[in-house]
Amino acid sequence: MSVIVRRMREEDIPQAVEIEKAAFTRPWSKSIFKATLLLPYAAYYVAVEQGTVERKTAEQRAMEEETEEQGALKEETAEQRTLEQGALEQGENQEPDQDRIVGICGVKKIFEEGEISNVAVHPDCRGRGISRRMLEMLIREAREDGVESFTLEVRAGNRTAIRLYESFGFRTEGVRPRFYDHPVEDGLIMWLRK
What we know:
2 domains; alpha+beta
């Protein structure tokens, strides 16, 4: 399935909260996301896995059942056929595209500096370059908006995330002792400077 990165919308918030819960010990609530999206100096992004989930029509199900039963005939009443045909005409047997939010991240812009937060990918989608794609868009758009330097905080033991940030040019410039809990761990303050 393809993944696209776009700006977060209000209807994305419930799925964003679920990703937060899976990634962080102190996840943001729906109300915090909603308030943050209203901030004129904040930009939040989502990675969306696009896909179509189609339900089988009654006719397709009937054909498969006949095949499985080696040609046994399925009896349907005229009333059943009429009801199923009406549902087909109204599109009730098909679902719309089912998009799933698989990653989130955001930045708050204060003059020429951007504070990056909430970088998270759903556990079953990690290792696919989704964080990189989100950060590339975030940094590119923030730079177009005048941001020159970026900062973020990361758990000292999160080597995967630290390697990712370093690949963008971030460097550790400070430590917040015992900043994280569950487990207790230092937070590294990283900067990407102009």
